[in-house]
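Appendix B. Chain record.
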Amino acid sequence: MITRKTLGQRGEQAAADYLKNQGYSMVETNWRCSHGEIDLIARRDATLVFVEVRTRQANNTEWAFESITPAKQKRLQTLAYAYLSEHHLQHIAWRVDIIAIAWRRSEPPIIEHVENGLDW
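Structure tokens predicted for this chain:
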């Protein structure tokens, strides 16, 4: 059986690969501060994209998306502001995206990407 940590690492790698294939360039992975951690930070054109990756062993992404509660959305926004402040990037365009991954046993994972994940 796969551990939760290993599943999370596989999900983050799958999400990073997915983003690269979609034309994003990776800026940082697993950025940490006193407020928590941002899984992936990428850039697409002039926009900095903070990405929360939610991976579940399941046949669909429903559980992964359901884990993004209003409290989690608020924390993601706080983390984004902390990163922008620390790197003196308050003036640039940015957003928070959610990537949900359903890791299935014998089939490729399902990857769903929602842009502006704080707006739902």
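Further analysis of this model is presented in Appendix C.
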